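Morning. Coffee machine broken again, so started the prediction first thing and wrote up yesterday's gels while waiting. Chain of 156 residues, entered below exactly as on the submission form.
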Amino acid sequence: MGRYRLHVNGRQRVVDVPGDTPLLWALRDELGLTGTKYGCGVGACGACVSLVDGAAERPCVRTVEESERTRITTIEGLSPRGDHAVQRAWVELDVAQCGYCQPGQIMSAVALLAEHPDPDDAQIEEALRDNVCRCGTYPRIRAAVRRAAELARGER
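Came back before lunch.
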């Protein structure tokens, strides 16, 4: 067991787990941040995507030890009121069907828009290509990313 300090959603948190514990389990089981979903456990599906130092990362394949000196943002930390441009676009365009993959999709979109505020279709495809949606809402997801970019620019 180790004692690790994690900077999560703007707060310092301490977890007592082995250093090789996947960050996903520390977020979900130790910190109660269950918006970060378990999908595959090998970094292939994107259900667990969270931001690590602003980049879309997969906490299922990242250890607590290697995450100690980073800033982690989960879906719960994106916006306390759910009014981030990406969240608003997702609701406006009724993107979710079952919803399981959506936190990972949203966090990947947030990272994309931070780097490319007005992404083209190729950039959207590249940023979200490894986020699996078993319900097949990809067209709505792409439209929501474009809408989120408009909302972030203040367009109606």
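Residues 50 and 107 are 6 Å apart (CA to CA). Going to sketch it on the whiteboard this afternoon.
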